[in-house]
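Hi R.,

Here's the chain you asked about this morning:
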Amino acid sequence: MGKKDRLWKKDVLSWSLYDFANTIYSMNIVSLYLKRYIIEDLGKDDRYFDIPFSLSMLVAALLLPALGAISDYSAKKKTFVFLFTLTCCMAVGLMAYIPPAMFMVIIVLFIVANFSYEAAQPFYNALLYSVADGTRARFVSGVGVAMGYVGSVIGMIVVLPFVTGSVFSINIPFLLAGGKTAAFLPTAVLFMLFSIPLFLWVKEAKIRKPGKIGFLKSYQSIWKSITATRKYPGVLRFLIADYFFEDTVTTVILNIGIYCAVVIGLKETDITRFLIISTISAIAGSMLLGKVAEKWSLKNLLTIIIWGWFVALILFVFIDNIFIIWILGSLIGILLGGLWTTTRPLLAELVPRDELGQFFGLFSISGRAAAVIGPLIWTTVVYYFNSDRFMGKLMIEWFHINQQNFLKLPYKMGVLSLSIVLLVGLFIFRKVPHTQRKLDD
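And the predicted structure, written out as tokens:
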């Protein structure tokens, strides 16, 4: 039976379901409810979310490369995924029971949860080549991304009645509106529930590297890999460029909920609708661009995707027409699905197969380091362009911004700063070589 015939077998679907599961967490906690709870309900500013998020990503950036290298020498990838997933779900579930007076406990639990969520990713990514190979891995990667966005939609819909007591004006019996914190426990349960098939039915491929590697030696191995990237043309340049891409994407994901509320002016249910439409577009984009990636240059495809991001962000800042805003939300969704569909196989085709875990660890450094800096850039821009600070006052005076719009100014300037970051990444990425598709075994 060929690889194509195996596409919809149990192990492939089980691997893809983990994307379904973990995106429920990233959408409901990271993008939709926690930051808005901190800002809108508790009256704190962006720093109380962005700095803890950056701290969790800093710890991840420091530890994940070593863990990824260790995974190359053992068939324990599923074990790592399980332990980190369980920790994340437990921390998120506990957040639901912490009162506002113990706000800093919620922050600590969020740091633990977000680190654990990120720590599972390189092990999960490396398991891709336990269920698919060659060009099929490109498409299966797209299936995983698409399943992730299906999880986002279903997760938002299932959790919404715990928050509002209804789903799009349809009251749910026996459920009262619990507010944003009521999203925490059901999110944790859904994440764990849909992760179970991965643990049960994905069989890890046999390791290609015999022996063991210690924690400290793994860092030495990583340093040797970095210094030896000249053997693998384009790897280091790709990782640096990806840093800037991830900087933008992560920061957009973190702030899409608050941007919808403050700048676009959407209400709770409308924010959910907006994100659902954007997510459905991401599903279509990841599937479609996953198929395109089977036939076309991954470098060319990724370049077009990043230029699309740049144009969309600029339009978000300068266009207020609500109809066009909804269209742009769909475009961002398509581009987001395409970005993660192409970057995983592009890296895999730049490096040897038996070093995937280690290089996915380096891949995590790029993305996670960006997730340290990106939110800090955002929160700094938002802080200094606030209407009661010098830069904000200057912009209001120069451009005669009225009272209705000056509350939107800090967030629009934040988006403009992200568009500049994208251009830097594109400049670096232009010399990454084209990859060749690896033939099925």
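Confidence is low (pLDDT under 50) at residues 1-5.

Let me know if you need anything else.
M.
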